[in-house]
Amino acid sequence: MSAFEHDSPLVTGADETNDRRPGTPRRGSGFLDEPPALHTTPSATVGPYLAIGLTWPDGPDAVAPGTAGEIWLRGTVVDGNGDVVPDAVVETWQADPDGRFAHPDDPRGSSSTPGFRGFARSATPGGEYAVRTLKPGPVPDGDGGLQAPHVDVSVFARGLLDRVVTRIYFADDDHAGDPVLRGLTPDQRATLVAAPTEDGYRLDIHLQGDAETVFFAL
Amino acid sequence: MTGTTSRLVLPSYLREDAGQRTPVAFDGYRSTGLRAPLRTPVDLPHRLTEITGPVLGEDRLAPGDGDLTLRAGGEAQGQRIIVFGRVLDSGGRPVPGALLEIWQANAAGRYRHVVDNWPAPLDPHFDGLGRVVTDALGRYEFTTIKPGAYPWGNHHNAWRPAHIHFSLFGTAFTQRLVTQMYFPGDPLFGQDPIFNAIPPTARDRAIAGFDLSRTQPDWALAYRWDIVLRGTGQTPFETDDDGDVA
Ligand SMILES: [Fe+3]
User: Which SUPFAM superfamilies does the entry mention (chain A) (predicted)?
Assistant: First the structure.
């Protein structure tokens, strides 16, 4: 956890105000109460032929094959009838085992884990996604605490006019202090927690139904 | 760690009003019925996982990925077009180095995909897949052919307006966007629930503009489409070189 301590210019004391006025050096000044200069482009469904554009030979590899500690995250995507969804794409984004992201905006420095991309995309032939990765470490929550290890997930499919976003947590971690899980009921939490398997973890994604997965508004 | 007394200062990405965003479900689009989640999504504040995202650039490109008209040693059939524009964020800032992926039907409206079996010809010289990365000013450009309209089973006599599927990552998980670009004045807009799922105030932003000035004489028509991803709140907005960012 020492990696999270105050060696980064963006880790600041608790009593320092989060100054968001224009002209302050911080990226993302965050004036969300002002209208945007431009409205965003509206999303659309990926449609049934998404595999043409959204699959890569190395898509499922958030980490290079053969990396020590590699695991597979798997699960089935299920619709409101309980039928599998064989034409979705599941994308994952996560920190490395040190809790760092392979991204220059990580204030503690980009991940130094060799071969770690942190991003994967998997089609769902037969309804199942499969992602090769490393188990992430805890990630700072921005308020001085830690988020439990987690993976951010986007699901795209015919019949979804926008992506739907969820998270994968891991059954063998301590979730007590996690700011996201803390706000959910036990039933809701259960839809986000992957169970250990022989080669990694498994979590099904229910788009609808009694066990509908908790999806997030970003 | 000194956890209880330190914190990160993180940007927060703009969330558009519902009136400017495509809802995940739409009544007229039948496939949403069993697939679009029914429960209200839970708000997720933007923390480290959300303000970072995959770094994907030139390493995802292969030679020729920006020109879809030349495949398998020959030229694609159809109306050659240039599709170009800029990728900006909602603060008006260009998004440089951003990967764009597109896929589309051929000139006859047929996709090169096992599930697409309507009786229109495949084109041996068109696979319908393109990739480019934006330059330092957020600009992108593809050369392709104008896709045909195609029928689908959503309702009686249903036809998709001509469109190109676009996928963008931006620089953060919050910015991920998959969408469709339409062509101006398409007579099929009125009966298409995927187009009409977009709120009326946002539909123009899904339609490219014909641009005679970028049309290449004796070669290709040109369509301009600027794409706007969510930005990190508002910073003083400066008009760019040509001022026509929207
Ligand atoms: Fe399509």
Answer: Aromatic compound dioxygenase
For residue B32, give the chain A residue with the closest CA. Answer: A159
Q: What residue in B sits closest to A25 (Cα-Cα)?
A: B235
- Considering only A64-78, A99-113, A144-158, which range has the smallest mean pLDDT? A99-113
Domain total of chain A? 1
Query: What Cα–Cα distance (Å) separates residue A181 from each residue in A147, A193, B5, B43, B116?
Result: 9, 10, 22, 12, 42
The CATH number assigned to the domain holding A79 equals 2.60.130.10
CA separation, residue B191 to residues A149, B182, B183 (Å): 46, 14, 15
Q: Domain residues for A95?
A: 50-206
Structural contact between residues B134 and B95, judged by C-beta atoms closer than 8 angstroms: yes
Of the candidates B93, B165, B205, B224, the residue annotated as catalytic is: B165
| Cα-to-centroid distance, B114 and ligand 1 (Å) | 14
Residues B44 and A218 sit within 8 Å (Cβ to Cβ)? yes
| Amino acid at the residue A209 | G
- CA separation for the pair B85, A18 (Å, rounded): 35
pLDDT score for B233: 61
CA-based nearest residue to B107, from B149, B136, B64? B149
CATH class in words for B57-148+157-234: mainly beta
B216 in reach of chain A (CB within 8 A): no
Q: Predicted ipTM?
A: 0.92
Residues 6+ away with beta carbon under 8 Å from A68? none
C-beta atoms surrounding B167 within 10 Å: 21
Global pTM?
Answer: 0.89
| Chain A CB contacts of B1 below 8 Å | 1-2, 4-5
Active site residue B165: yes
Q: How far apart are CA B51 and CA B232, in angstroms?
A: 9
- Domain regions of chain B by residue span: 57-148+157-234
Q: What does the pLDDT average to over B168-176?
A: 96
A27 vs A143, more confident: A143
